[in-house]
């Protein structure tokens, strides 16, 4: 591992469309990001996605994770490539499946992602379905029982891992009980610290050795962070205190999108990334383009040079990232077209 901090390795960026634009190619080469997230706007056909992923890997001078939001229900990016994926229902419905069916379905989803060269699925959602549904979770949750949520999430993570894809438990420490969509505004959790820990954090405690990644929540938890409203993504008490020290989680912590309404107005891209990284996150996620990550990289570079960000902390974050690349399948190139067709056939049998 390099001893010289490269701030781009703390960032995950996005692309504008289905093909790499010239300025995006140049940005990936100079940024050397930790990864790239794909959205429906980037997906037109299996062949096109394979070419896009191959292009990303060719441009990035260091290994880069290719990730996607793939949950089922309304968050179901693969439907852009084949309508069979409409068969993957929201988690609320998946929760009624047998553990065998759930794992098999997610193994097939993982095989489809692996065929395209995609390394990370930002699933499962382990938020509890507590509230009136206005927080954009609702049916994306496996339910209100922490034990059942953890059990279902376990099968998702196992199925993905068996296919060579890393899963991500989200959104720590839980959006259950909130009543605002963090895409639009900062949500506030009404929960006391004990209830938050015993119920909503329970899945993370169970899955701490199984989830390769954990994604943070853009909600304020005043029972943990009293005073001025502070999103969980920027909470040292939650990320370093609860997640790292109290739970003992050793995997990669990634922020939710730092362009979301709950946090975007709290500073420039670099300031947001710095706040999350100082709190305990390993990667800062920007889901719009490559421009905000480049701005964030410049800011983080200056802060590292000034000693305001610890080079030792940077090395710890990079060690966790590099460990993720040792997982079977992660970083592999796209597979031949036949692998996609086989994955589709398997998915049809399980769903």
Shape: globular
Q: Give the helix/strand class.
A: alpha/beta
Q: Quick one: CATH superfamily?
A: Glycoside hydrolase, family 3, N-terminal domain
Total DSSP helices: 12
Low-pLDDT runs of 5+ residues are none
Query: Can you give the helix content as a percent range?
Result: 40-55%
CATH level 1 class label: Alpha Beta
Give the strand content.
5-15%
| Termini Cα gap | 42 Å
Q: How do the helices and strands follow one another from N- to C-terminus?
A: EHEHEEEHHEHEEHHEEHEHEHHH
Major beta sheet, strand line-up: 11-9-7-6-3-2-1-12
Please give the radius of gyration in angstroms. 19 Å
Name the assembly state: single chain
Q: What's the story with the biggest beta sheet?
A: 8 strands, parallel
Strand tally: 12
Structure, explained:
- By secondary structure, this protein is an alpha/beta fold.
- It has a single domain, classed as TIM Barrel (Alpha-Beta Barrel).
- The protein contains twelve helices and twelve strands.
- It has helices at 22-31, 46-59, 91-94, 99-116, 146-162, 193-200, 202-206, 236-247, 269-279, 291-305, 311-324, 337-350; strands spanning 11-14, 35-38, 65-68, 70-72, 75-76, 120-121, 166-172, 187-188, 213-216, 219-220, 252-254, 284-285.
- Helix 1 (22-31) links the parallel strand 1 and strand 2.
- Helix 4 (99-116) packs antiparallel against helix 12 and helix 9 (269-279) packs across helix 10.
- The longest helix is centred in the first third of the chain and has 18 residues, at 99-116.
């Amino acid at each position: 591992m390099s001893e010289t901090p490269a701030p781009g390795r703390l960032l995950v960026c996005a692309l504008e469309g289905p093909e790499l634009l010239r300025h995006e190619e140049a940005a990936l080469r100079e940024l050397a990001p930790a990864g790239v997230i794909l959205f429906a706007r980037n997906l037109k056909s299996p062949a096109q996605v394979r070419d896009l992923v191959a292009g990303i890997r060719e441009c990035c001078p260091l290994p880069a994770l290719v990730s996607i939001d793939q949950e089922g229900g309304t968050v179901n990016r693969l439907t852009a490539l084949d309508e069979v994926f409409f068969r993957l229902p929201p988690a609320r419905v998946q929760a009624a499946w047998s553990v065998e069916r759930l794992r098999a379905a997610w193994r097939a989803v993982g095989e489809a992602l692996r065929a395209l060269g995609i390394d990370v699925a930002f699933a499962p959602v382990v938020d509890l379905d507590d509230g009136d549904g206005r927080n954009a979770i609702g049916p994306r949750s496996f339910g209100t029982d922490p034990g059942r949520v953890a059990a279902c999430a376990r099968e998702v993570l196992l199925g993905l891992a068996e296919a060579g894809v890393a899963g991500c438990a989200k959104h720590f420490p839980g959006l259950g009980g909130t009543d605002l969509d963090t895409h639009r505004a900062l949500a506030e959790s009404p929960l006391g610290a004990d209830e938050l820990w015993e119920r909503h954090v329970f899945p993370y405690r169970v899955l701490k050795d199984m989830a390769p990644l954990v994604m943070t929540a853009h909600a304020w938890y005043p029972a943990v962070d009293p005073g001025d409203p502070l999103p969980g993504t920027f909470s040292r008490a939650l990320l370093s205190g609860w997640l790292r020290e109290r739970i003992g989680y050793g995997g990669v912590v990634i922020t939710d999108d730092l362009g979301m309404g709950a946090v975007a107005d709290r500073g420039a891209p670099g300031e947001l990334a710095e706040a999350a990284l100082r709190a305990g996150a390993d990667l800062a996620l920007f889901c719009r383009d490559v421009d905000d990550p480049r701005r964030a990289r410049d800011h983080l570079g200056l802060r590292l040079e000034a000693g305001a960000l610890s080079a030792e902390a940077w090395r710890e974050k990079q060690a966790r990232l590099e460990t993720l690349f040792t997982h079977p399948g992660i970083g592999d190139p796209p597979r031949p077209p036949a692998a996609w067709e086989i994955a589709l056939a398997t998915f049809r049998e399980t769903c």
